[in-house]
Amino acid sequence: MTIKTNYLFSILLMFSLGCFAQMDTYQYERPLTGIEDEWHNIIIPSKVFENLQPDLSDLRIYGLTSTNDTIVAPYLLETLSDQVVQHKIPFKIINRSKGTEGFYYTFQVPTEASINVIDLDFKVANFDWNVTLEGSQDQQDWFTILEDYRILSIQNNITNYSFSQLRFPEANYTYLRLLVKTKEAPQLEGAHLNKVEVNRGTILNFPIRSMFQNTDRGTKITEVDVILEETVPVSELHIEVDNTYDFYRALKIEYRSDSLNTERGWTYQYSTLTKGVLHSLEPQTFSFKSTLAKHLKVTLYNKDNEPLSLGKIKVYGPQHQLLARFSQPAAYRLVYGKASAKAPSYDIARFKSKVPKELKALHVGDEVSLQKQKSPEARPLFQNKYWLWGIIGVIILILGGFTLSMMKKR
């Protein structure tokens, strides 16, 4: 070989070793099989999240070619959560009147758009009313959309809560008539008519390993610990209550974000996912940003009320997938588990529109640990210091004997 060829070969060898060294800094890998096209999607198995960083920044796809070159396959990370699209519908209030049953408000909708949500804004701060909503095309024949639908608002020094949103199946009427059943003027200040569309994602129901409920009568607080089977990305919590009477309780949902082993045992740190109100007006599902968690805690503030009898609690979260591009044949694997990893920056993030819509999913194999076996700890030849002092003493005696013997010979 010439000097130039040797130099180039040395550079390539160092680059290849550098790629291997980079991959070795990760703790786990899973083989990827079934690669046939340039683009594929990879459904992230739920067990992977147990060893991932909270922001999922340490996911990588490495491939080993037939020439022992290590290459990287770029990817896009997708969270398959529900997508909510809200369309505002123009309208105007053409009539306000009072009847024997309460106060009437008539809305005129100049478009043919369907409506399924109405947000009401009242000047009155505290109320508990039932409303009826009707629709008509000519203001002669009226058809019931909602009947005795309860709305509520509580505002004081402790609580600021309002439930004044009407939800119903899509309705298409030129006129809508709202009846608020109250003797006092509700003072409707405004309303928002909307068509809300929900594009369903892939939402998973995560199994719960155990659940513990405890009420402290002194603090008037109920805490519910929910432990999942494994660490997963959670984004929704559904709570069922067995009590049949009306209730209204402030609520906080947290997850265990850190732990510390002290002389007194383990101490845990919790971070808030969301705050809200658990009430009897509608099914209770609380949504929050998708977060990796295994241990959840629900806190209910009972005040002077009897603790609620909670039924089932269900935990949901979105499925995560990678849209990956494979440029050349190789033995690819999904690697992860690196605390210092930063989220990758790939060019394909700027060209999302060019990713094919229909992708074939790859098979993700079992997890393999990449952690190097620790060398056995070197132990001293003599672990007991008395043995060491004894041997030193014997050596001193022997040396002293030799010294005296030499002095006598002289």
From TrEMBL:
The keyword Transmembrane applies. The chain crosses the membrane at residues 386-407. Residues 1-21 form the signal peptide. It holds the Pfam family DUF3999. InterPro entries: DUF3999 (IPR025060). The keyword Phosphoprotein does not apply. Keywords: Membrane, Signal, Transmembrane, Transmembrane helix. This is DUF3999 family protein. It comes from Winogradskyella rapida.
